[in-house]
Every structure is written in structure tokens, then in C-alpha cells.
């Protein structure tokens, strides 16, 4: 049926909603970051969005995640516009060339563990997620956007989601617009999407 099922709106998936938001901001030819590469869905989306003139930097601490992502990017023939780092996202400001500092169009985070991976105890943690978020805001251009999907269902997930929410709450409103999306009428724990826009006048 054209347009898909009407009882499953696109915003039911937070990752899809994040893509729609990034699409509205990230321009072809720009540089973007996938801070949690995982299976590479967001990396592929970003690579397709920036196009052949743009570039994507991706971070993950698991070689398994990078291998899966590399295969996905190669299958779509977009791997040449992506640089993958086997490194924590808290190092993104050191890894990304200085020429791009303050010029990124978008940074995407998708917290938690690698879906389908062999090690579910390898999760993102607030001690490194919060410094990475600060680095991401520094690296964004004015008008750029940061998206973060957080999950509360796995051990450690709720505390991390809470820490990120508190971080977003404290962002100075004259420099950033921070929004949080969550379901009103669904069972908890539900994922949530945090979106931060870096204001042009910041
Ligand atoms: C939910 S998955 C990401 C899913 C991914 N966005 C996708 O499209 O498939 C979270 C990923 O974060 C990774 N991770 C954990 N700690 C990290 C860190 N400090 N820096 C970067 N990635 C990390 C995990 O290895 C895991 O692959």
C-alpha cells in the first residue's frame, strides 16, 4: 500500500524521527558524525545524506560494530566518504581534523549496546557519553543539530538516560534549543529522543 501502514506512524521509531530531523538540517557536501556506529544504520543514512562531496566520521569501541558497518557501507558503495574509528566518542575532538571543528552539520548518538552483538555488557556510559556530548556541541556549526536516542530498558540505561536529560536541561537557552521526545500513552520504559540545536547567534 503506498505510504505504508497507517497504524504505524514513522515517529514510532525514534531513529527514524532522528533521521527526519537531521535531514532538515544536514546539507549535501557537509561533514557529520555518527558517535555510536553500531550496525551502521545511522552511518549509512548520514553518508547518503552528505553525498559524494561530504564526509562522515564514525566511532565505536567494538571491532565487531565497525566490521558490520564497513560491510553495510561497501554494499551501498558509500564507504569512501566515511572514516571509521575504533575509539570512544569521547575522543571525537582529537580524531576529527581541526579544519572541521565548528563546521559539522550533525552529530548522532544512539546509546546502549550493539543489537545482535556478542557482548551486551559493552554499553555506552555517562562517564564517556557526557564528555562526548560536550565535544559534539563544540564541533557543530551554528545551526547544526545533535540527536541522541536513549533507552531505559537495559542495566545502566535508565541512569544514563537520566544523566543525559539533566545535561540537556542545563544547556544555556541563549545558545542552544534542547528538546526531548517521548511517548505519552505507551508503557515505560520507552526510548526517548533528545535533540539539541546550536543557535546561529551562539
Ligand atoms: C545502540 S548501538 C548503536 C546502533 C547504531 N546507531 C546503528 O545504527 O546500528 C550503541 C553502540 O555504542 C557503542 N559504544 C559503547 N561505548 C561507546 C563509546 N564510548 N564510544 C562510541 N561507541 C560506543 C557500542 O559498542 C554499540 O555498538
From TrEMBL:
GO terms for molecular function: methyltransferase activity. The keyword Ion transport does not apply. The keyword Methyltransferase applies. Gene3D superfamilies: Vaccinia Virus protein VP39. Keywords: Methyltransferase, Transferase. GO terms for biological process: methylation. This is Putative rRNA methylase.
